[in-house]
Amino acid sequence: MNFINRSSIIFSIYFVFHLLFIGSASAYAESAPINIEANRMTSTERTNSVVFTGEVDAKQGDVRIRCDEMTVYYTQENKTEQTENKDKNAEKPASQQVEKLVCTGNVEITRGEWLGTSKKMTYLSKERQVILTDNAKAWQNQNVVSGDKIIYYLDEGRSEVIGDASATTAGTKTGDKKPTRVNMTIRQK
Fold first, then answer.
1. I want to staple 160 with a disulfide (CB 3.0 to 4.6 A). Which of 41, 70, 151, 169 is the partner?
2. pLDDT at 35
3. Residue 188 has pLDDT above 70, yes or no
4. SS3 per-residue string spanning the chain
5. What is the count of structural domains for the chain?
6. What are 125-144's pLDDT values in tens digits?
7. pLDDT at residue number 27
8. Is 20 a residue whose pLDDT tops 60?
9. Any residues with CB less than 8 A from the CB of 179 and at least 6 apart, and which?
10. Comparing C-alpha atoms, which of 18, 22, 16 is closest to residue 51?
C-alpha cells in the first residue's frame, strides 16, 4: 500500500471516528474518544461513504452499536476557512460531516439502560434519530416493545414504536403479510 492510499484510509477512519457520534446529548459523549472495530473497512471518496464489515463494534461514551455491516455517508463541505491563529493566510481543510449511518445484519444499539435490536438501523445525524426496522425491538430494564419501526430520539431519550397498518389484511391471498401491531410487555416488580 503506498503512502497516499494509507494516508487516505487513516484520514477516512479518523473523520468517521470523530464525527460518527458528534452531537450526543451529554457533553461527555461529545468529547469521549470513539472506537470502531471491524474485520474490514472500505472508503469510497466518489460516493462519500465508508463501509465497515465483519463484526462491527462502534463505541463512544454510553452509545454502542454492533452489527454485521455499517455504512457511513458524509457530506463534503467545499469551503475553506481561515484559521484564527497569527498567520491569517493559513486555511483549514474542507470539513466533512456525517449525514447518515446505515447498519445491517444483527443490529444492536445500546445507550445506558436502553437496548434496541433489528435487522436494519438508520441513524440520521441532523435529526439525531435512530430508526430500527425489520424485526425491531427495544428494551428498557425488563420491559420490551416491538413493532415494524422504532424511532429513538437521542436528544430527548424517548422512543416511538409504529406498527405496519398498511400491510395486507387477513382473508386475502395466501402468503400475504398480515399487519403488525405494536406489542409491549411490562414487567411488574
1. 151
2. 74
3. yes
4. CCHHHHHHHHHHHHHHHHHCCCCCCCHHHHHCCEEEECCEEEEECCCCEEEEEEEEEEEECCEEEEEEEEEEEEEECCCCEECCCCCCCCEECCCEEEEEEEEEEEEEEEECCEEEEEEEEEEECCCCEEEEEEEEEEEECCEEEEEEEEEEECCCCEEEEECECCCCCCCCCCCCCCCECCEEECCCC
5. 1
6. 888 899 999 999 999 888 99
7. 44
8. no
9. 163, 164, 165, 166, 167, 168, 169
10. 16
User: Is-contact 167 177, C-beta < 8 A?
Assistant: yes
What is the domain-level CATH number for residue 24?
Answer: 2.60.450.10
Strand partners, 84: none
How far, CA to CA in Å, does 17 sit from each of 53, 91, 94? 15, 23, 17
Grid coordinates 470523530 are at which residue? 18
CA 33 from chain centre, in angstroms, equals 16
Tell me the C-alpha distance between 130 and 150, whole Å.
Answer: 8
Reported as a single tens digit per residue, the pLDDT across 88-106 is 555 555 566 778 889 999 9
Overall pTM > 0.90: no
Nearest to 148 by CA among 168, 164, 160, 137: 164
pLDDT at 117 over 70: yes
Cell digits of residue 132:
430500527
- A 10 A CB-CB count for 120 gives 16
Q: Residue 82 is part of which domain span? A: 3-185
